[in-house]
Design goal:
heterodimer; A: alpha/beta; four-stranded antiparallel β-sheet; 26% strand; globular; B: ABC transporter involved in vitamin B12 uptake, BtuC; two-stranded antiparallel sheet; 4 strands; disordered C terminus
Chain lengths: 240, 295
């Protein structure tokens, strides 16, 4: 559904992403893991054209979208729920959602809103509240809901568990699984390695802008490299 | 009593004009993070456009429409030619550029139209006066108050209810995320300037009907007042801009009444002193925007 060839992102002289290639199959959850500064967020920014990549080919559902601007990419069916939620704080929950669906021809369609409220009852309760007054977890739900409003085929999620109560993190991860089961293709960027490996089908590990490892999530959970470097198990022999 | 009502009407109408100009400044500020000092030249441009359109024998409503369109086109062109190439630059750079445009346009106006003010012959309903229950009310004053009220309501509806308006508000709050909603950046930039041009045009119409002439530097003085209004009201806040405009209009009329004739020349100096006071003690204004734009 989404495939990326040789993507390079540079800020001035600093290369944040150094020619990575990966793909996400239809209906798959793929995790993009790695420490801070590995280039995960830069990769997502380049996919959405918030930064212009130096090189690389991005294909979405068979169509080369490398030359498209952000608005066109959203229209083609790829949306991003950005790191740190980034809801519009001084707009109501409902307006945040409407903005998410702005690319639709029928952007005020109440049926679309009601479907989203049915999925997120808390947002329905808070629909006229300013988004900035929601709790962190609710804001994260709103950010995901907003990204879903455009009915995307591919959803990019940047750190949906960052700074959120564990109970809500679990709820959000359940939701992500549910979305996959409905056929959505998801690229999940996370620092929460264990949880994202538990729900994803495959994973790539980024380190210093390069893909250091990739494979089946289940196998990666068992692999010594991952356990050692990311799950904080100091000695692989202790991992039982 | 009649006198007091007249003063109030004068204050409201003057404040209304400042509010319209300040609104135009605030809309651009909320997106771009800089005060467009060339905004005053849009007022001047409207004035000359109206002068020549009327001179060419156009009926008044048509001349106003043509001048409004010219004003909006000039505002959009300003963004396209001068500000868009500087996209991503420090707002300070944009601010300085806007000074440059302002200066350049003033000189161009002087060369093209001469330095002397040109008298503007406006229809009677704009220059006359009504006598309502013994209170003498100037038509421009009354029209100004009504126009500002209607425009403020219309702008509010536009920003809250329409796709374009909501795009603009969202862009002002978080530009990158607005892009992620599929909002086209160039369209938002152009729209912000088009609205500010429209507001400048309407403000200019009210301004020239109060002063009765057009001159190359006629935009400067109201612009400075509107700038003070945006500071007083809170930069980037639209409600603040309107509040600041009215505050300034009321203050100006009040000083006019209170100050002895010999000291009237200090009126503007006092107003600017109040600006300095705001910058020192309440730099974010009376009704600050909740957060300053990052860009």
């Amino acid at each position: 559904m989404l495939s990326v060839e040789n993507l390079t992102v540079q800020y001035g002289h600093i290369e944040a992403v150094k020619g990575i290639s990966f793909h996400v199959g239809e209906g798959e959850i793929v995790s993009l893991l790695g420490p801070n500064g590995a280039g995960k967020t830069s990769t997502l920014a380049a996919l959405m054209k918030l930064v212009a990549p130096q090189s690389g080919t991005i294909t979405l559902a068979g169509e080369n979208i490398s030359g498209h601007g952000t608005a066109q990419i959203v229209q083609r069916g790829m949306t991003l729920s950005p790191e740190g939620r980034r809801v519009f704080p001084r707009l109501s929950v409902e307006k945040n959602l409407l903005l998410g669906g702005m690319v639709l021809k029928d952007w005020r369609n109440p049926a679309v809103l009601e479907r989203m409220y049915a999925r997120f009852p808390i947002l329905a309760e808070r629909r006229s509240q300013l988004a900035g007054t929601l709790s962190g977890g609710e804001q994260q739900m709103l950010a995901i809901a907003r990204a879903l409003m455009a009915s995307p085929r591919v959803l990019l999620l940047d750190e949906p568990s960052l700074g959120i109560a564990p109970k809500i993190v679990a709820e959000n991860f359940d939701l992500i699984c549910q979305l996959r089961d409905e056929g959505l293709t998801i690229l999940l960027v996370e620092q929460n390695v264990f949880q994202s490996l538990s729900i994803s089908d495959r994973a790539y590990v980024l380190e210093n802008g390069r893909i250091a490892a990739s494979g089946d999530s289940e196998e990666m959970l068992k692999s010594d490299l991952i356990r050692h470097s990311y799950l904080g198990v100091a000695d692989p022999t202790q991992a039982a | 009593m009649e006198l007091i009502i007249q003063y109030i009407i004068n204050a409201l109408s003057l404040g209304g004009v400042y509010a319209l100009i300040a609104l135009g400044l605030a809309i651009v500020f909320s997106i771009f993070g800089f005060i467009n000092f060339a905004h005053g030249e849009l007022l001047t441009l409207f004035g000359y456009s109206l002068f020549y359109a009327l001179g060419a024998g156009m009926p008044f409503p048509l001349a106003v429409a043509v001048s409004l369109i010219a004003c909006m086109a000039a505002a959009v062109a300003m963004e396209r030619v001068a500000f868009r190439p500087l996209r991503g630059a420090n707002p300070m750079t944009l601010l300085v550029s806007s000074f440059a445009i302002s200066g350049a346009l003033q000189v161009i106006f002087q060369i093209a139209f001469g330095t002397m003010p040109k008298p503007l012959i406006l229809p009677n309903f704009l220059t006359g006066a009504f006598n309502i229950g013994g209170v003498y009310i100037g038509a421009p004053q009354l029209i100004s108050i009504v126009t500002v009220a209607i425009l403020a309501l219309a702008l509010n509806l536009f920003l809250n209810k329409t796709k374009f308006g909501l795009s603009l508000v969202a862009s002002a709050q978080d530009f990158d995320v607005a892009k992620l909603m599929g909002i086209r950046v160039n369209a938002v930039y152009a729209l912000a300037f088009a609205i500010s041009g429209f507001l400048a045009g309407v403000a200019a119409l009210l301004w020239v009907s109060m002063r009765g002439s057009v001159a190359p530097d006629m935009g400067f003085n109201p612009l400075v007042k509107a700038f003070v209004a945006t500071i007083v009201g809170g930069m980037g806040s639209l409600t603040g801009a309107v509040a600041g405009g009215f505050f300034l209009g009321i203050l100006e009329v009040a000083l006019q009444i209170v100050l002895p004739a010999d000291y009237l020349i200090f009126r503007d100096a006092l107003i600017l002193a109040i600006l300095i006071g705001f910058l020192l003690f309440r730099p974010r204004g009376l009704l600050p925007a909740a957060a300053m734009p990052v860009k």
